[in-house]
Amino acid sequence: MGTIIGRQGLKIKYIQDASGVRMVAQKEMLPQSTERIVEVQGTPEGIEKAIWEIGKCLIDDWQRGTGTVLYNPAVRASVGSSSGQGSVTGTNPSYGGSSRSYNRTGNGADFSDHPSSYSRRGNNDNPNRGIPLVTEDGEEVQTQNISIPSDMVGCIIGRGGTKISEIRRSSGARISIAKAPHDDTGERMFTIMGSAQANEKALYLLYENLEAEKMRRSQQQPE
């Protein structure tokens, strides 16, 4: 989102002035993701120009979107309760109806026809990695990075690290947290390492905590 807004809102102001549209960025993240909606209001020609400018911003600054957790309505509908094995797989019509796991981190925007770029396995990003790491069960260790807003990091970690410790224990995944924000948005990078199933459960538990905290804060807001 910071890519589109720019420093002190200069980028989004430029896009609005150049295209003649009105743009409204939502404050809340979409469920189980770190994406937010940007509403564009104006004439068809103005909207087309604004969308082009937004796309250009995302492509030019693609590295900033690394770790974005993409919104997937199909996954949200299939999650259900947190009981059971914690599997978070779902069917996404845009991928031909195939079963898709929660491995949804990527560059935040894909303008090609190749959906595979939405799924990043960190171990494959290193050309010198050699033999892939495996778990005790023989499954290949996968690495995923997600960005968490700075004001939400505390609710994920919990008092004395109790919440993050419980997520690690329940999922079986290793979760490390960057000590400092990775850009000027203040977001912190969480790195998850484990089997596909462990990572899925860890992500689900992280999102569950985020949703619970957002609900708690919304209920505390004065009417």
Automatic annotation (TrEMBL):
Q: Cite the PANTHER family for this sequence.
A: KH DOMAIN CONTAINING RNA BINDING PROTEIN
Keyword set, alphabetical order:
Repeat, RNA-binding
Q: Return the Gene3D superfamilies for the record.
A: K Homology domain, type 1
Q: Which InterPro entries match?
A: KH_dom, KH_dom_type_1, KH_dom_type_1_sf, Rnc1_KH-I_3
Chain intervals with Polar residues compositional bias = 92-106, 114-127
Domain named K Homology is located at 1-59, 140-211
Q: What CDD domains does the record tag this protein with?
A: KH-I_Rnc1_rpt2, KH-I_Rnc1_rpt3
Name of the protein described by the UniProt record:
K Homology domain-containing protein
Region (Disordered) residue spans:
78-133
